[in-house]
Amino acid sequence: MIFALELPMQEPLFTIADKLPVPDLIVTEWAIILVIGLFAYFATRKMERVPRGLQNAFEMIIQWTFDFFGQMLGESVAKKWTPILSTFFLFILVSNYSGLLPGAAYIDGFKAPTSDWNVTATLALIVFFSVQISGFREHKMHYFGHFIKPMPLMLPLNILEEVARPLSLTLRLFGNVFGEEMIIGFLLMMAPFLIPMPMMALGLLTGAIQAIVFTILASSYIAGATGEGH
Questions:
Q1: Regions of the chain short of the pLDDT cut 50
Q2: Residue 13 lies in a domain
Q3: Of 13, 25, 84, 115, which residue is 20 to 30 A from 123 by alpha carbon distance?
Q4: What confidence tens digit (pLDDT) does each residue in 24-47 have?
Q5: For the segment 132-174, what is each residue's pLDDT rounded down to a tens digit?
Q6: How far apart are the first and last CA of the chain?
Q7: Does residue 7 belong to any structural domain of this protein?
């Protein structure tokens, strides 16, 4: 006997022009993008030579990203790719933390985006194309020569390695966030107030770790594509 798992179809929160359905996941993403966008806007609206307030916090995040990941990328490459790496880190961090709000997984319009593989796959694809673009920008047509190193027979394996990277990024981030939400959800049903609290406290740590790990892997892939080995 073969058992099949059927996932329930997600009902949209609303539709645009009676044609385009908008699920709760998209609404949460819009909210997170709006929060990050407003944070960046107000932090950079009136730039001062001696930063303070939001500008100081924003510059600390950017500087930390540049210093931390610049060690792998090198200063010149880090200057080009720090903006997108900082965006990865902030979006994933806020997305992970949004799922820690009490009952977030059960509130329409408030599901953690990183608990859905469609979102993590999109982030992974952005990393994949960023790697190819960065490698081509640094080495031009010579970049594609690494697909046949150390010998032309390695071409299929090298292509497979490139394809496996976004798949690995997708499953790693999705699996960790989705699994954590499932555990917290089950614990909430068994003991609504006592047992889930340690898990949610641990989620503050793991949420940050997942954001850092994803960004580290993205920067390492870019560093590999832009390095002297190519």
A1: 1-9
A2: no
A3: 13
A4: 778 888 888 999 999 888 888 888
A5: 888 888 878 777 776 777 777 777 787 887 888 888 888 888 8
A6: 52
A7: no
DSSP character string of the chain:
------PPPPPPSEEETTTEEE-HHHHHHHHHHHHHHHHHHHHHTT--SS--HHHHHHHHHHHHHHHHHHHHH-HHHHHHHHHHHHHHHHHHHHHHHHTTSTTGGGSTT---GGGSHHHHHHHHHHHHHHHHHHHHHHHGGGGGGGGG-S-GGGHHHHHHHHHHHHHHHHHHHHHHHHHHHHHHHHHHHH-SSSTHHHHHHHHHHHHHHHHHHHHHHHHHHHHHHHSTT-
Show the CA angle centred on residue 146, arms to residues 141 and 151, nearest 5°.
Answer: 125
Q: Give me 74's structure tokens.
A: 């090198």
What are the structure tokens assigned to 214, written together?
A: 């994803």
Please tell me whether the overall predicted TM-score, pTM, comes out greater than 0.85 for this model: no
Q: Is 223 exposed, middle or buried (0-12, 13-18, 19+ CB in 10 A)?
A: buried
Identify the domain containing residue 181 by its residue range: 19-226
Within-domain flag for 199: yes
Nearest to 95 by CA among 39, 33, 14, 37: 33
Q: Which two tokens stand for residue 126?
A: 């952005």
Residue 8 forms part of a structural domain: no
Could you tell me which residues come within 8 angstroms of residue 212 by beta carbon, excluding any fewer than 6 positions away?
Answer: 89
- Residue length of the chain: 230
Q: Show the CA angle centred on residue 182, arms to residues 180 and 186, nearest 5°.
A: 120
